[in-house]
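Lab notes, practical 5.
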Amino acid sequence: MLRVENLHSGYGRIQALHGIDVQVPEGEIVTLIGANGAGKTTLLMTICGNPRATAGRVLLDGQDITRLPTHRIARLGLAHSPEGRRIFPRMSVHENLQMGAVVADSRHQADDLERVLALFPRLKERLNQRGGTLSGGEQQMLAIGRALMSRPRILLLDEPSLGLAPLVVRHIFDLIARINREQKVTVFLVEQNAFHALKLAHRGYVLVNGRVMLSGSGAELLNNPDIRSHYLEGGGAA
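Output from the prediction step:
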């Protein structure tokens, strides 16, 4: 479904990605792990069109989307839940969810809202509450729910566990699995929590200094001694 070929990207004179090759097959959860500053967020942002790739291609169902504006990429069925959630804090939960539906067919908005609220019943209880007053876990649910309101076929998730308590983290990862399994949404997951990400994923990639250094099934990477020593030891499996 999503293919990244020899992708180079960065900010001004700073080159952040160096020849990235990644595949996200339809129906799978694919995870990208790596330390802070490895280029994970830059990769997701480049896929979405900002910043622009300086070389290489991004293909969605075989269509080259590398130079398309972000709103056109969204209309092709790709949604992005960004790092830090970036909800609209002064808007209500309902209004935040409506913002996610802007690129979707308005005829389905009521059904889509019902579907998202069934997945996140906590949001249904807080529908008229301002987004900025929600807990961190609830704001993450809102960010994912807002992305789902665009009726995506592929969902890009950037650090959904960031700053959350361990129990909330496990709940968020359970929800990601449900979205993939029940709603048939392909997921490309960027995470620092390597244990949960690789346990969930069908396959994964390891990004180091803007380059893919290792790839394999989630189970293979989870059991790789180098991955365990660099990313899993010292509480990674909490």
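Observations recorded by the TA: The longest strand covers residues 14-24. The two ends are 32 Å apart (CA to CA).
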